[in-house]
Design goal:
Blueprint lengths: L4 E5 L6 H10 L8 E5 L5 H10 L5 E4 L16 H7 L3 E4 L2 H6 L4 H13 L3 E6 L3 H5 L3 H12 L7 H4 L2 E5 L13 H19 L8 E4 L4 H8 L6 E4 L6 H14 L2
Parallel strand pairs: 1-2, 1-8, 2-3, 3-4, 4-5, 5-6, 6-7, 7-8
Helix pairs in contact: 7-9, 10-11
The chain binds phosphoenolpyruvate (PEP).
Phosphoenolpyruvate binds next to strand 8.
Amino acid sequence: MRKKFIVGNWKMNQDLASIDSFFNELSLGSCTCETWVAPQALHISTVIEKSSKAGKSFFVGAQNISENSNGAFTGENSAETLQDLGATFALVGHSERRSLYKEDHALLNKKLMHALSQNLIVVFCVGEQLEERKNGMTEAVIKYQLLEGLKNFPTDQLSQSRLIIAYEPVWAIGTGEVASPAQAQEVHHFIRKTLTKDLDLDGDNTPILYGGSVKPSNADGLLSQMDIDGALVGGASLLGEDFSKLAQIASKLMK
Ligand code: PEP
C-alpha cells in the first residue's frame, strides 16, 4: 500500500507569530501519514526547528527553486542554498508560478531536473483551467504538462523515488470549489497510466496528490479514492488544528 501525504503549501503567508500558533495548535498524536510543509523559503530553518520542538519532524521544502546553481540571478534561491537551510523537497510548476510568473514548460523542466540533480524530492504540479475542462481537454492538457515537464526524467529507481505528482485543477485552487472524488480519481488514474505508458516511469508507485480547496470536511472522500495518495493543501494548511485533522484523516485511511 502506498503511503498517504499531507503537504501544506503556505504560499506567501505565515509570520513568526502564526508559525508559533500553528505548532501550538498541532496535535498529530499517533498520525502515521507523511506531514510536509512548504513555508516561505526564509522560514525553512525556523519551521524545521519549531517542528522538532513540537515533537514531530516535518519534511520542510521550498515553494519554488531556481534552475541554476549560482551566479548573477538576483532574487533567486538555489537548490543548494535551500538544502543548506534544511529543505528536502521543492514544489515545481504550481499554477501560481505558471500563471503569475509565466513559468513555461521548458523552464519548469529545467527547474525539476536541477532540483533532482541536487537530490531534492520534486512535487511536480499539473492541472487544467476551467475552460479546458469544459472543452473536454483535461486529459490532453495534463498529458502535455507531464510529457514536457518530465522530459528526460531518469528512469532509475532512486530518481523515481524522488518524484511526486500533484494534480491541482486550477479552477479548484483557493476558490472553495473542490473537484468531486470521482473527478479527481479519474484524473489521478490517467496520470498514473501516463507515467507508466508514455514516460516509462513506475506510475503504480509514484505518489499522486490532489490539491484544490481540500479541507477537513471534504478530505475523507478524496483521500479514500484508490489513486489519491494525499493532498497538497493551501488555505487549510495554515492552521495547526485543520492540518492536524487532515493528517488524522489521511493516517486513518492508511490502516
Ligand atoms: C495550493 O495552493 O496548492 C492549493 C491547493 O490551495 P487551496 O488548498 O487553498 O486551494
